[in-house]
Structure formats: C-alpha cells, structure tokens
Amino acid sequence: MKKIFIGAPFTMYLKDNTFRKKPKIMICKIIEIIKELKVEMYSAHLNENWGTIKISPQQIVNNDLNNLKKCTHFICYLINIKSIGTLIELGVAISLKKEILLISKPEIYQKSDFVAGLTELKFVRFCNIDEHNVSDCIREFITK
Questions:
Q1: How many domains is the chain built from?
Q2: Domain range for residue 132?
Q3: Do the beta carbons of residue 43 and residue 80 sit within 8 Å?
Q4: Which letter, b or e, does each residue of 5-38 get, where b requires 16 or more Cβ atoms within 10 Å of its Cβ?
Q5: pTM for the full model?
Q6: Residues whose CB is less than 8 angstroms from the CB of residue 89 and which lie 6 or more positions away in sequence, other chains included
Q7: What are the C-alpha distances in Å from 42 to residues 72, 73, 74, 107, 140?
Q8: Who contacts 41 (Cβ-Cβ below 8 Å, separation ≥6)?
Q9: Engineering a disulfide at 51: which of 14, 62, 121, 138 sits with its beta carbon 3.0 to 4.6 angstroms away?
Q10: What CATH number has the domain bearing residue 72?
C-alpha cells in the first residue's frame, strides 16, 4: 500500500501564526490530488494546522523521521533552497531509497549539479512547475 510523505517549506513561510498564501496554494493542490487518489499521506502542514498547532522541535523531528520511514513515496515541493528542513527530509528520503518526486522551478535543477545528478541517476523525478502540469506529474508519480 502506498503512503505519501509531503515535504515542503514550513517555518520560513509562517508569520504571526499565518502561513503565506502563495506556497499554501501549491501545497493544498498537492494534498487535494493525493486525497482524490485515495492514498494515505503524511503532511506536517495538515497535522500542525498550518502552524497554529505548536509542537516541540524534538517532536517535529520524531514525527518526520517516523513518517519518512513508513512512507513509500516522497513528494518534495522545493521552491526555495533556503528551506533547510525540506532539504534534510529530501536527504533522508534518498538514503531510505524512497520513490521521490521533486516539484520545483528550473533554477533549483540548473543551479545544483547535485540535484541534476540525482535526477540523471534516477534517484528523483523532477517536475518543473514552469513547464509541466503539476497535477499530471503527481498523478503519474503515484499511479505508476
């Protein structure tokens, strides 16, 4: 049975317990597609109600690591390479040999030879949000 872990920036988009609108729209889109496909998922954004439910940093790490171990697929929405937590989750998912979809802008791919290498070696699939229909990328990734 498939289980999806959604990795996406969190803390950097919180201001006064309010999650910024633009990144929230894309994360919600990812969540809705997974719900439509009736696949189990883990999302810290949902579990922490977009930042209104506060948990300790230790609990965040425990939740993420436990759910990364349990998941079969990792969807990584990375629009900002300054999202250290999301990058660490991506690294853990790679080391656990999870199926990975990286949804990002081409700059992430173009500015990092490492990310380009991950894609070329098929450790991750890359979905360019400027050129691809993200819904199609996610559906194909989950249903393959």
A1: 1
A2: 3-143
A3: no
A4: bbbbbbeebeeeeebeeebeeebeebbebbeeee
A5: 0.92
A6: 5, 7, 64, 68, 74, 76
A7: 11, 10, 10, 27, 19
A8: 3, 4, 5, 6, 31, 34, 35
A9: 14
A10: 3.40.50.450
